Amino acid sequence: MNKSILSMIVLSTVLTGCGSDSGSDSNDNNQAEFSSLKVNATSYENWTYVNLSRNEAVALSAEQAATSDDWHLAFQRSKVKSNGGASGAGKVQVAVADTQDEFYNGEEAISNIFLNADAAQYEDDLKKSYDLASLTFTQDENKPAIKGEDWYIYNSQSHTLSANTNNAWLIRHADGKTYSKFYFTALTPQPDRTYSATLNFETQAADTTQFAGGEQTVTAAMAPGTSVVCIDLDSKATMDCTGDAGVWDLRLEVSRSGTGLWTNGGVFGEGKGAAFGPQTKDAVAAYTSATTISGRDISSHYSADRSEGVFDAHSWYAYNLSGQHQLRPNFRTFLIDTNKDADSSDKYTLQLINYYSLGESGTPEIRFKKVSAQ
Predict the structure, then answer these.
(1) Residue 245 confidence (pLDDT)
(2) Average pLDDT of 144-153?
(3) 141 near 311, Cβ under 8 Å?
(4) Are residues 210 and 298 in the same domain?
(5) What pLDDT was estimated at residue 155?
(6) Domains held by the chain: number
(7) Most buried of 292, 307, 321, 367 (most Cβ within 10 A)?
(8) Which has the minimum average pLDDT: 54-63, 104-113, 132-141, 237-246?
(9) Whole-prediction pTM
(10) What is the C-alpha to C-alpha distance for residues 308 and 120, in angstroms, rounded to an integer?
(11) How far apart are CA 163 and CA 219, in angstroms?
(12) In a 3-state reduction of DSSP, which class is residue 143?
């Protein structure tokens, strides 16, 4: 497996005044304008790990990567994570150095600029000097696929939550084979400051392709003095989340330290849970299958809970601008600090410049340059 992972990376170093040299074995970024990597990150399940300092891929399983400081960035399709905070045992932190605001009108992508942009136009943004002290560096944090602002409404006067009954989701159960569509009908604070939640759902049983059995209801109440409750949709049962990690499908937490709705897998639990949404309640009600639409497989639309960071908050691309369902880069420049605790750590400016570098989607090309000591 390790050899196959290594073969997924095509390394090229772009030397000053020269073109791409795929046979170069140079590891000295100070002698080059910048370096580039074409990364095969086509897997929907596995990550490809990259060490910037050595200009190479690092062959690691997910278990090995979780405790390794030998990688800086990891890639999975269009996703990028850094080795620090919730994503790994390293001390990597990331900032946005150049936001490329000219690509957007507010939050809306300007199609004409994206479609006519060329990597060469933004090369100087990679090579320029940035005031590191003025940048905001962060590490990755755990985030649920079901975002908080989508499933609850916060009352700033009473400091309580209520259910957002307009949105709905499709979820994959912990077993990875069963699916449900659901929406909240109530989220109610109790006198002891715990919460109870009621949701309606319909299930597509394992190894079937259609929702069946009609809509069902489950109510989950947190035990006194607790802030978390887990729900098993298969049995319509609730539990305290400390039992068999493969049983529950939704984990509801409401507390001062954190409020979230999690699926089983990715962050909490060892299952294969994931979510797709939000959509309006009426839109989700129209789904007759959780896995196909008009014969088209939609299983890749589900996202597991995971760690997120700067690359998620400041996306490096826009999608479907030309009606061809393609990703277009915005050439934002990121600043990668390989060790937040060491002033002398290696630091790099980095851009993602192509999503199809090896002739298919999920093969992003990055270019990066080592930052001179300040």
Answers:
(1) 52
(2) 94
(3) no
(4) yes
(5) 94
(6) 2
(7) 367
(8) 237-246
(9) 0.71
(10) 29
(11) 13
(12) strand
217: Cβ contacts below 8 Å, ≥ 6 apart: 185, 198, 199, 200, 201
Distance, in Å, from the CA atom of 353 to the CA atom of 368, rounded to the nearest integer, reads 11
pLDDT, residue 5, reads: 44
Q: What is the mean pLDDT of the segment spanning 345-362?
A: 97
What are φ and ψ of residue 149, in 5° steps?
Answer: -65, -10
122 and 180 belong to one structural domain:
no
Task: Tell me which of 8-17, 108-117, 308-317, 364-373 is least confident.
Answer: 8-17
Indicate the DSSP class of residue 101: G
Q: What are phi and psi of 354, to 5 degrees?
A: -165, 140
- pLDDT bucket at 218, cuts 50 / 70 / 90: very high
Domain end, chosen from 306, 333, 351, is at: 306
Ranking 2-16, 70-84, 150-164 by mean pLDDT, the lowest is 2-16
Q: Which residue in this structure is represented by tokens 């410049």?
A: 353
Same domain flag for 152 and 269: yes
- Residue 329's domain comprises 2-140+309-370
pLDDT at 105 over 90: yes
Buried b (16+ CB within 10 A) or exposed e, 214-252: eeeebebebeeeebbbbbbbbeeebbebeeeeebbbbbb
Q: How far, in Å, CA of 12 to CA of 23, rounded?
A: 7
Q: Are 168 and 128 in the same domain?
A: no
Residue type at position 48: T
**What's the whole-number mean pLDDT along residues 317-325?**
87
Can you give the pLDDT at residue 246?
60
Residues 6 or more apart whose CB falls under 8 angstroms from that of 339 comprise 90, 91, 92, 345, 346
Residues 33 and 124 in one domain: yes
Last residue of a domain, one of 285, 306, 327: 306
40's CB contacts (< 8 A; 6+ apart) are: 8, 9, 10, 48, 358, 362, 363
